[in-house]
Amino acid sequence: MERSKPPVEAAGLHAELEQKVAALEEERERRGRLDGELVRAERVAAVGMLATGLAHEVNNPLACLLASLEVLDQHLDGSAEARSILADALDGARRVRDVVRQLGSFSPKADPGSPSVFDLRETIEAVARMARPTIRLRGRLSLQLPDSELLVSGWSGQLAQALLNLMLNATHALATDGRGRITVRAVEQGGGVEVEVHDDGCGIPAELLARVFEPGFSTKPAGEATGLGLPMAADVARAHGGTIEIESVVGAGTTVRLRLPSARAARTPAPPRMSSTPPARPRVLLVDDEPALLRALGRVLGREMDVTTADASAAISLLTASEATFDLVITDFVMPGIGGEELYRIVCGARPDLAGRIVLCSGAHHDHHLQRLADEEHLLVLAKPFGIAEVRRAMVELAERGRPARTG
Ligand SMILES: Nc1ncnc2c1ncn2[C@@H]1O[C@H](COP(=O)(O)OP(=O)(O)OP(=O)(O)O)[C@@H](O)[C@H]1O
Ligand SMILES: [Mg+2]
Questions:
Q1: Which protein residues are within 6 Å of ligand 1, measured from CB?
Q2: Residue 270's pLDDT is what?
Q3: How much is the pTM?
Q4: What average pLDDT is seen over the chain?
């Protein structure tokens, strides 16, 4: 009788062993996924650091260059050739500005700051410019965008990363004969903004389609992909109150559809109150530690505004004088000695009526310090390089807020 026991025990042991092997396998997979996530996060962080450093170094001289070229453009009555040379120079400088801005999309998104309202068409166009050289190796990219703004509230850098992944996924699906087509279509409908990335590539078999949003799922060679592109895109969609879906037919192609709430209603400007419309020729104080930048911006803005320029300590003397009146004070945030925050605090103490007219500006992409101050104090932020259009917009926004003077 005793003899019949061992097979039962063996079966139990076997089942237990199988369970342990399965658990180990699961753990191994989980670690693999985490490793992948780490590699991706490190890569993004490294690019982000590089982008932030670069933006900081490049944006000041670039702001100076752009402002000077814009003034020249307004003054020059030279030959047609001289005008065309200047137009090329301006075009080149604006492209450098766009490239530096695009790099900003890759800055770390650990602390994305507060959401802002932006035109998604610009994000799509910027991402398309980045992806085009890669896409061109396999096919063509066409954009179908509406003529009017696609306003969305959120973080354009995050959406840029998500859209870049969708366009690269589409590219990888194309055959290598150069005849593939990728179409990015965006429309506003039913209170939402819909972006579709369509390719006529290989498509995804039904049994794999169910898995493409699993973190770590990838059919690409190990080491070349992390399988985090789509899960990340889904995450970004969720963070924006939106959704993402994918449709695919093997041999015919794939469509990924991103739906986001429109921010158009939020942007509808409040009717401006008479007392708060910007003055015809506003008095503007520009504060920066770079004299060349002050000169160049002073010239550009000077066409429409009464501009005073100063470094931080001269600005404080001007701002704390009892008779000082400015409609707008634009101050650099990072300056040697007295920085933008200190300047703001001093003005809050001495001239609370002027503190609400302070706008911060910075050349860095994601200055968390600046963002925190701006959030806490409800201050406007201008990204360098800025021109007369951005300053005009800031004036209007301040006026619309009709911000009451601070007390205390
Ligand atoms: N447009 C598409 N056409 C065909 N297959 C696709 C398409 N988009 C995604 N896939 C499939 O979904 C998988 C997961 O995509 P996902 O973007 O999450 O990761 P990945 O592209 O493999 O890696 P990574 O984005 O990190 O480079 C891909 O490996 C591919 O098999
Ligand atoms: Mg991908």
A1: 165, 169-170, 173, 199, 201-202, 204, 212, 217-220, 225-230, 254
A2: 43
A3: 0.52
A4: 84
